[in-house]
Design goal:
Layout lengths: L1 H6 L2 H26 L37 E2 L2 H7 L2 E4 L1 E17 L4 E4 L5 E6 L7 E2 L4 E6 L1 H15 L5 H13 L4 H10 L6 E4 L4 E6 L6 E2 L6 E4 L3 E9 L11 E6 L6 E4 L2 E7 L4 E9 L10 E17 L4 E3 L2 E8 L3 E13 L2 E6 L6 E5 L1 H12 L10
Antiparallel strand pairs: 1-20, 2-22, 3-12, 3-17, 4-11, 5-7, 5-10, 6-9, 7-8, 9-11, 12-16, 13-14, 13-17, 15-16, 17-21, 18-19, 19-20, 19-22, 20-21
């Protein structure tokens, strides 16, 4: 071999190169073999060992994954006390909210009468002369002279004096006068005396208070003219405006507190009726309250401030102080056993009385951090970026 190398020196370099390449290949194979993951085998069962168990895995949200950019934070009691960590139970509750609006006192339309004469004529007697006067049902308001009524009375008087009077004609004459609302007492007097009455009284159709008057002495009137408006003020209405955003929550029977102009103390009432349309100009719906008013202390036209207590559906609630708003997301920290704070993304409904309605992300019985949550937020974000190790607050 030595003799060959001496005779052919160029072969020495080739052999050296081959030896070096073989050594490199051997090293690479050894490193790759050592880097290959090997299964841990249970020598008793002959099976691969289970992977290590995450002791907090059962405390995560339904997806089992913390929100992006957040990581769980482990605590010990002394650290939690130093941070001022407080929690509150997540539970179902009855949601309600107060809506404030305005209204006005009006007369009760079912206890109001508008007085018109049934015939044309002239007012020749004036019995009720001013607004605010109380009247009784059947009380004379004005005395009216009408040519039509006077002519019908003449006919009735003539029939009563005739020896050949027909019962049918007499009855027809009485009915004609009755349809014009000539009082029965006037008709009977015409029959008894045989003489027509120049005037007849227009009577109050109901008892109450005169709230409007357009009748004057000597005035010529026809059926289109409203002589009086009479209403019973022992019961009044309050009409309140309900804005479109609140219409769905207001129902008949919804309780309210009414602060009426001129009264020292508020009154309580319930919605008695909801009008079937929305006012196109104000975009409101009218709600009606009915108030007893025997003392007449509540006066039509008075301004009213209305506070409605709206009872909403029962639902899961989380305190407003537990929620961290991060742009489009809402994050809470669910605390397990006081030693583990889990960030959880939640979907929330409206905020009512210091609590949010929970739509998704929490279950009843969990505890959420209401104090130190911003420290937890900072630590959780730091853990998520790998900026600290060990998973404990330092």
């Amino acid at each position: 071999m030595i003799q060959i190398l001496k005779e052919h020196p160029w072969r020495t370099g080739a052999i050296a190169t081959v030896v070096v390449l073989a050594s490199v290949v051997a090293v690479v194979l050894v490193v790759r073999d050592r880097a290959r993951p090997r299964a841990v085998v249970d020598e008793h069962a002959g099976h691969r060992a289970a992977a290590p168990v995450d002791e907090h895995a059962g405390h995560r949200g339904s997806a089992g994954i913390a929100p992006a950019g957040f990581a769980p934070v482990a605590l010990d009691p002394s650290q939690a006390a130093a941070m001022g960590l407080t929690t509150e139970l997540v539970e179902e509750r009855d949601f309600s909210r107060t809506v404030r609006t305005v209204g006005v006192v009006t007369v009760d339309e079912t206890r109001t009468a508008h007085v018109h004469a049934r015939v044309r004529g002239w007012i020749e007697g004036f019995h009720v002369q001013y607004v605010g006067r109380k009247v009784k049902k059947g009380e004379p308001l004005v005395s009216l002279y009408s040519q039509e009524v006077y002519a019908a009375e003449l006919e009735l008087a003539s029939l009563t004096r005739s020896q050949f009077r027909s019962p049918e004609l007499l009855d027809a004459a009485r009915k004609r006068l009755a349809l014009w609302e000539v009082p029965r007492s006037v008709i009977e007097k015409v029959e008894q005396t045989g003489e027509p009455q120049r005037t007849f009284p227009v009577l109050a159709p109901r008892g109450g208070v005169v709230v409007a008057k357009q009748a004057f002495e000597g005035q010529f009137i026809d059926p289109a003219i409203e002589l009086y408006t009479i209403t019973d003020l022992t019961r009044v209405w309050v009409l309140a405006d309900i804005y479109e955003a609140d219409v769905a929550q207001v129902r008949v029977g919804t309780p309210a507190k009414l602060r009426i102009e001129g009264l020292a103390d508020p009154l309580t009432a319930k919605v008695a009726f909801l009008y079937p349309t929305i006012d196109e100009r104000t975009r409101t719906r009218k709600a009606r309250f009915e108030l007893a008013n025997a003392s007449a202390a509540v006066m039509p036209g008075a301004f009213v401030t209305v506070e409605l207590d709206l009872a909403l559906e029962r639902g899961l609630a989380v305190p407003e102080s537990a929620v961290i708003r991060t742009g489009t997301r809402s994050i809470v920290f669910v605390v397990h056993g006081g030693t583990h704070a889990e960030p959880r993304e939640v979907k929330l409904g409206g905020r009512l009385g210091g609590h949010y309605r929970v739509a998704e992300g929490l279950v009843a019985g969990e505890h959420v951090a209401t104090g130190a949550q911003f420290l937890l937020d900072s630590e959780s974000r730091l853990r998520a970026t790998g900026g600290a190790g060990g998973g404990h607050v330092h």
